[in-house]
Structure formats: C-alpha cells, structure tokens
C-alpha cells in the first residue's frame, strides 16, 4: 500500500489537488482512501473530498505530526483492515511538518506501507521571497519536500513563476519542481501525478539527515503553537425548511467576505485560510479565502442528499487573537442568517462533543 503525503501552507490548494489525484488514480483502477487532518475541532475538507464518494477519514483538533500521532496510527490500521486501499493519501494541516509525519508512520512498523515522494504545495501569490519573512514551518515544508508543486500558476505572470522557481531552488536544491493549476488541470498537473507514482528516497543524504537532527527538537513541539496561527471552527444547522441553492451560495460568499473584512481590520496583512462548507440538499457549497487581499472563491459539488442543511466554518489566520477571531466568525455567521430570517441552531462544545443549542427561532 502506497502512502502519499501532500503538504503545504494553509490555502495552497491541497484539497483541490487531492481531488484531482483521486480521479486520476481511479482511472488506473486504484482503490484510494484519504486521511484529512484539520486544525480545528470541525472538519471541512473531508466533506469536500467525500462528496465524490471517496473513503475519507478526518482527524481533527490538532496536528498529526506532533499531538495526534496515536490518532494517525489508529486511523491507518483501521483503514487497512476495513477498506484495504491500494493508496492512502494524507492531507495534513497547513502548518504540519511532512517529513515528521513520514517518520512517525515509519516508526509504527507497518511493513505493508511504502511511500511516494513527499509533496509540498506552494501558493506563489503569497510566498514571501524575503527569507527573513519566511515562517519556520513554511521553510521546513519546502526543505522537507521531494516534490515542490507550485500551484495556482494561472494567477501569476511567467516572470513571477521564474522568480519563485529560483527562490525554491535556493531553499531545496534536490526536490523536483513542477508548476500547475489544480483548478484548471491539464498536462502540467499530470506531471505531478506521474512523479507521485514513484517511490520516496530510501536513503537520506547526509546533509539532509543532519538538518533533520537539528530540527528534531523543533518538530517534536506543537506545530500549531509554533506557527502563530489562531484557529477557530464552528457549525450551524439551518432549520428553515426551504432554502434555494442560490441563497446558499450567496450566504456563503457574504459570510466569507465579511469574515475576511473583519479579520483584515485586526491584521491587515493576515494570511491563512478561511473556509466554509454549506451542505444543501444534494449539494455541497464550498468556499474559501486565503488573504486580506484576495476575493473569496465558491464552488458547488454534488453529493448524496443531506437530511439537514449545515454551515461549517474554519478560520486559521496569522497574528490575530483567538478571542477576536471567535467573535468575528460567530457574529458574522449569525448576522448573515438573521438578516435573511433563516432559523438556525449553533453547535456548542460540551464534555461529550458537540450538542445543539437553539439560537434563533425564525420560521
């Protein structure tokens, strides 16, 4: 069974890339399962991936490279016994250390697992080429990679792409560099898929091994605390009976735009990922925004009919106090729903998990 680890900073396009990779593997008759790791207590990316009928497991409330290693081992062994996939794809949090994840899995002594080259995705629109401004965990992701995938090339000029390639080569002289648009697909994305069909290096070069030793004390600490990223996730159940799809799309966009605006007021240069899913009848409305300067993106995925309409929001952003982030998200979602006179219940965390508490009784 091959294990493919696809890392990259928050909002670099991991979920879209993985969805396309799963489609590619399906054409080859591969039986594939996905493990999605979310920072927050409520998962969103798993909804988007499983909408395509893919066997998906979510590990939430932390990072599998440090605090959730036991959860990862249990999930891997469970998938192997219950589903027997040919390939397992791991989508870690956007602040994880991919090589540490691989090392953790190797220490589990599961002989059936082999590894594809470690992939780290890069969003060229948000990557600082000033090494002094580059966060440690982003640098580690780049250095860990055996394949560096520059995503979203449809959004930049060729000159910018060339500069990014040179910058990445300075940080990692050994990785293969490919560039593509996961959203648009095409031959460039197929090159990435061809590379992950290979095997990870069986031996680590001496200088890389020494680098890993130097970083060991860093990587065994909590990657979320190191990152300076505040996180908050929440869920609302919409109890109003009739909601047109157009309304679900409009509400989703306005929620994302309003949260972005509020967070920008707290940190005008924030980066990270604000993402949302709206389960609506037989559809999943999925949206995201990744910086103060970016407009939100919305897409509608088909999935099995939902018995209830639910909105999930996950925000993970840099240099914003968590209590302010919680306030920005909760007041935005409740305000947008109340403006449209939509009745809802907000999921509240309790000692047994999440329970439902009625907040607004619009009919």
From TrEMBL:
Positions of the CobW/HypB/UreG nucleotide-binding domain: 4-178
UniProt name for this protein: Putative metal chaperone, involved in Zn homeostasis, GTPase of COG0523 family
Top-rank lineage group of the source organism: Archaea
One Pfam family, short name: cobW
Organism, scientific name: Methanosarcina horonobensis HB-1 = JCM 15518
Coiled coil: none
GO terms under cellular component: cytoplasm
Signal peptide: none
InterPro entries, alphabetized: CobW/HypB/UreG_nucleotide-bd, P-loop_NTPase, Zinc-reg_GTPase_activator
